[in-house]
């Protein structure tokens, strides 16, 4: 990860660290690595989304481990310097600053983080469509519903999951959501 961090400009690295901290503090549902990667590439840096996701996962592990061990800023910086592959100076400065400013908040919320080992629901979109015909069937005319769920996995990476349902399946899906809502209102 140290080699990948070297190519990321300091301002983008600082933004990534901020997003990781905000995710660990449950202020944002996930880290939008696709959007950040596109902006870094636009600035002329050759990095792919997979490498940026690895850096985000490394930072998440670093900050959450430091929070679990209740490390001070100096202890964190010292442990970074003793690693096998040392980080560039600008990265250590950013990590020091971010941890100094917001590290204590993670330590408080880390217990809640340990219980959240599944993805977090971020958004849902749906659309109604009708298949009129195809190469093999001249007249279909059956409506269907396409649902796209946006989910942030425990490391903060956001992904979209799409699926199609018949109208009766969607009605059942909707009924189950209404049941969940009514149960949640009683809590």
UniProtKB/TrEMBL annotation:
<dbReference type="InterPro" id="IPR047155">
    <property type="entry name" value="COMMD4/6/7/8"/>
</dbReference>
<dbReference type="InterPro" id="IPR017920">
    <property type="entry name" value="COMM"/>
</dbReference>
<comment type="similarity">
    <text>Belongs to the COMM domain-containing protein 6 family.</text>
</comment>
<feature type="domain" description="COMM">
    <location>
        <begin position="120"/>
        <end position="187"/>
    </location>
</feature>
<comment type="function">
    <text>Scaffold protein in the commander complex that is essential for endosomal recycling of transmembrane cargos; the commander complex is composed of the CCC subcomplex and the retriever subcomplex. May modulate activity of cullin-RING E3 ubiquitin ligase (CRL) complexes. Down-regulates activation of NF-kappa-B. Inhibits TNF-induced NFKB1 activation.</text>
</comment>
<dbReference type="Pfam" id="PF07258">
    <property type="entry name" value="COMM_domain"/>
</dbReference>
<dbReference type="GO" id="GO:0051059">
    <property type="term" value="F:NF-kappaB binding"/>
</dbReference>
<protein>
    <recommendedName>
        <fullName>COMM domain-containing protein 6</fullName>
    </recommendedName>
</protein>
């Amino acid at each position: 990860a140290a080699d990948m961090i070297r190519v990321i400009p300091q301002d983008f690295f600082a933004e990534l660290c901020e997003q990781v901290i905000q995710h660990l503090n449950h202020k944002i549902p996930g880290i939008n690595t696709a959007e950040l990667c596109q902006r870094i590439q636009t600035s002329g840096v050759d990095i792919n989304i997979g490498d940026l996701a690895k850096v985000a996962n490394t930072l998440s592990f670093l900050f959450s481990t430091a929070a679990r061990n209740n490390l001070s800023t100096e202890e964190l910086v010292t442990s970074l310097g003793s690693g096998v592959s040392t980080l560039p100076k600008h990265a250590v400065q950013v990590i020091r600053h971010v941890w100094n400013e917001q590290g204590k908040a993670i330590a408080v919320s880390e217990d809640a983080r340990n219980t959240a080992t599944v993805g977090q629901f971020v958004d849902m979109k749906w659309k109604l469509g009708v298949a009129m015909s195809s190469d093999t069937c001249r007249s279909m005319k059956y409506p269907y519903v396409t649902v796209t769920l946006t989910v942030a996995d425990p490391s903060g990476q956001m992904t979209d999951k799409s699926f199609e349902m018949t109208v009766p399946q969607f009605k059942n899906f909707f009924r189950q959501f209404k049941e969940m809502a009514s149960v949640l209102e009683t809590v």
